[in-house]
């Protein structure tokens, strides 16, 4: 005879005592988590404006111009007649806002040759028409050409780096022409000095005559003038006659020595 298990009643289906405790803690933990997330969200939303003010923001880089000046050897260009030459000295001012400071000198050395050739071609074009003893004319021609035909600043670029160049030009004589012109200029300077001296003497004489004629026109007596060494002897005024030295008087009761002048009687 086989035994059949009995059907469990309602009392056997009740949960274990630990299941209720665990469920209550799960519900409470879920509620605490929701409250914490809500507080965190509110705190974060309120702190956003303050955090935005404290965030680090990098300002855009302000371009800085680096400037350098170069004065290479003078350029030798033939003058009119192809016998003598002019010396063209130039000072190049280089500037850039895109080149790094540590590479600035390298770029200037790289572009210096191009700028020198550019100025040399311009100087040769105008120097062949100027006499060798007139450097001022060549300087004027170069200045006009730089202002009209090829105005600075000259721009050079390599990749993303750009440079600006401004030349400052002066023109000098050939040393051989300078030696030839030296006697002429020495004589000219001496003549100009003599002319200036003669003009000053004439002005001084006119001023003195005008000062002498002014009292005569007004009828006043001319004031005495101190001798200056250039006027006549009539300008010298005689001094007053000197008085004779006083005669010493003898002491009371003493007779004068023979030969001594007698004091005047009072």
Sequence-ordered SSE layout with sheet pairings:
Elements (H helix, E strand, L loop, with lengths): L16 H38 L11 E5 L4 E4 L6 E12 L4 H27 L7 H14 L5 E5 L2 E12 L2 H44 L48
Antiparallel strand pairs: 1-3, 2-3, 3-5, 4-5
Helix pairs in contact: 2-3
Salient structural properties:
266 residues; five-stranded antiparallel β-sheet; 14% strand; 4 helices; alpha+beta; 5 strands
Explain the overall architecture.
This protein has 266 residues and is α+β, with helices and mostly antiparallel strands. It has helices at 17-54, 101-127, 135-148, 175-218; strands at 66-70, 75-78, 85-96, 154-158, 161-172. Strands 1, 2, 3, 4 and 5 form a five-stranded antiparallel beta sheet that branches. Strand 4 (154-158) and strand 5 form a beta hairpin. The radius of gyration is 55 Å and the shape is elongated. 11% of the residues are buried. Residues 229-242 have low confidence and may be disordered.
Total strand segments: 5
Structural class: alpha+beta
Number of helices: 4
Which regions have little confidence, pLDDT < 50, spanning 5+ residues?
A: 229-242
Using the CA coordinates, give the radius of gyration: 55 Å
What proportion of the residues is helical, as a percent range? 40-55%
Distance between the termini: 203 Å
Provide the residue-averaged pLDDT: 79
| Element string (H = helix, E = strand) | HEEEHHEEH
Strand content: 5-15%
Characterize the largest beta sheet: strand count, sense, and whether it forms a barrel. 5 strands, antiparallel
The coarse silhouette is: elongated
